[in-house]
Amino acid sequence: MKNASLSFALIALVASPLVATLPAAAQNLPSNLPAPTFAPFVIDHRAALAAHSPADVSFVLDAPAGKHGFIHAAAGHLVTGDGHRIRLWGVNITDWSPGSTMIPSKQDAPLWAATLARYGVNCVRLQFLDLPVPRGLIAAGDNTRALDPAQLDREDYFLAQLEQRGIYIDFNLLVGRPFKAGDGVADADKLHEGAKGISLFDKTLIDLQKEYARQLLTHVNPYTGRSYANDPAVAIVEINNENAIWLGFSMPSPFYARELDGLYNGWLQKNSTAAEMSALRSETGVQTGDPIPLLAGPEVGAAPKDRFDVESRFYLWLESGYFSYMRDFLRNDLNIRCLILATADHSHHNTGYPLLLATSSFDAVDGHDYWQHPWERKVKSPMVDDPLNSTVVEMSRSAEAGKPYTVSEVNEAFPNDYGAEQIPILAAYGDLEDWDAILWYTFEPKKDANWKPYIGDPFDISLDPIKMPELAAGALLFLRGDVSPARETVLRRYSEDQVFDSYRLSEKDRPYFTPGFPLWIPLEHGSRIDSLDDGPTRKFPAATEPAPIVSDTAQLAWYWLKPDSGQVTIDTPRTQALVGFSAAHSKPLTNLSAAVSNPFSAIVLTTLDAQPIATSSKLLLTAAARAVNTGMEWNPRHTGLAQWGSSPTLIEPVTGRIVLRGLAPAAAVLAQPLDGAGRPLGQPIPATHNADAWQIPIGTPATTWYAVTVQR
């Protein structure tokens, strides 16, 4: 999840006077990417509501959501009530851009529900509902203990519209709630959003979480006639978002430091021998009768192993106890029938294993990750050039054998010249790794019907002219399972000591924090944790990184090693893609090849009729390079923007030829360019036929997607 203060700073930049000149958008591009020609291309969801789109992929949804009963875990995956495997492909619904809202008006609710369905979204994750009105559900006042009736009514109507179209719900209970003194919370003015860390042990905060969960989940939606606890369209309830506490955690005030110390010392008395207590007192210089302090900040790295281990066991007890307690409350007191998740493994600059161990009793595991999050302030670079640090590898560390694995937050934040790479790559490798859900962060419904068509913040994909068409193509690829699951799954076992010790490993061991583990394994095979409290994982033999890295299904290949040459290829019967530096696009796939002038692009061809490409009559082609806002300017280091830019968003059209081979005998092949509403844009482009190849010229008119028809 992104940082709220950073978000507000970016929003302030968006609202400031900006230069609206195209040359500034390209003047700071890296030397390997020449300044291209950009053209306006705007996503128009309101216009799309009034017209049928040939790229509508809502047929992949099974409406209404929940008609087969509650989603649950079985045989290591998500299944519906009647036992059929189900994957979830979707978006977070949030509110960051000025004028946007996570709770649409009743007038707009059908628009946004239909829009998401049209792009193949079958699940939405509701984040930040625990913010005050007008953004969230919390009623205005001196406390956060009541839900606003009018806002809740709008939310009910919106969710009913989503469910009707086959879109499941993921409720995230504790995210950004701004606890107040009126809640009876100590030092409320010193707490961060959601009271991270301390909300796992402070009784008042836990009672407030239970109260909110009861109010929301036992509430009966008048438009469905069911409470959310008893609604099979609710797929997941998450106890909280990105919340953990570990060694060296910084307390917001002395009150909470004393409270945590008290819990620690009470736990020590129950779980330590007299000799162990004496040794701890000696190490910490504490007299008998005085509380033993917890390690703080940099003390953790230098602490003796016995002291480090005892605190590790305490934090494990604290976290696992909290999550189990909340799960039992939801399941037994509120009678929640859907899948319950604890929280996400969300930081890959350090270990996630202690948190995973604390939540190991849950039926499913969740992960979050971003390629070059804006926090990192890195020079923007392509993920295809760095597979071993890719989001695929980072998130694959969290999956556990025998449990569903969901990815409920992921994105490659705007701006990034290479942002077209993320959706097709993750959809493909999500299939290879046999994940159960991928939910993109984030989609922001626009409250104002006259919202100017541009990308308003780093995470919002709702008006992104590259990511929205790719979202539809990715839905087909991921939900159908076009890439076969890996033939082999490599399992890792950890002892409890290894789990604890991983906290003190260097960042050079990121993201797996398993010395010796070859990071290319998740790009070749499946990767899962077999145990977190058993014997250590096996030794992996030293080996040289393969280039390319080819999946054991032979359907995916990742070419790399040389800078500015990375490329991922996807070659399956129903979806084929060339993602990365275009000089490598000459590598022909079974049915697809390309010759384009753009230095970097993502070209995805997928069938709309579930037939193989060779015999399909209807296909979706997405071809994307770069997107910029008008007047956008990079800073000198290319780590971020000096000017955010304004409307309209512009695209660099992918220009050249798409070549289709191996098609069953056809009389003609036509590529219909589509506009930002998914409607026909100009006349169909006829392909020319030469021997076994159909060549489609693309680039004019400017677009990022085409509906391809094969006439036989």
Write a structural description.
By secondary structure, this protein is of the alpha/beta class. The chain has a domain at 559-711: Chondroitinase Ac, Chain A, domain 3, CATH 2.60.220. It is built from 16 helices and 32 strands. Strands 16-17-18-19-21-22-32-28-29 form a 9-stranded antiparallel sheet, with helices on one face. An 8-stranded parallel sheet has the order 10-9-6-5-4-13-12-11. The chain has a 4-stranded antiparallel sheet with strand order 20-27-31-30, with no helix packed on it. Helix 5 links the parallel strand 5 and strand 6. Helix 13 runs parallel beside helix 14 (467-480). The radius of gyration is 26 Å and the shape is globular. The relative contact order is 0.13. Mean pLDDT is 92; it is low at 3-31.
Q: What name is given to the CATH topology of the domain at 559-711? A: Chondroitinase Ac, Chain A, domain 3
Structural class: alpha/beta
- The best one-word shape is globular
Question: How much helical structure, as a percent, in the residues?
Answer: 10-25%
Low-confidence stretches: 3-31
> Strand portion, in percent?
15-25%
Oligomer: single chain
Rounded radius of gyration (Å): 26 Å
Specify the CATH architecture of the domain at 559-711. Sandwich
Largest sheet: 9 strands, antiparallel
Distance between the termini: 48 Å
Widest β-sheet, arrangement of strands: 16-17-18-19-21-22-32-28-29
Number of strands: 32
Mean pLDDT: 92
Q: DSSP helix count? A: 16
Q: What is the CATH class of the domain at 559-711?
A: Mainly Beta
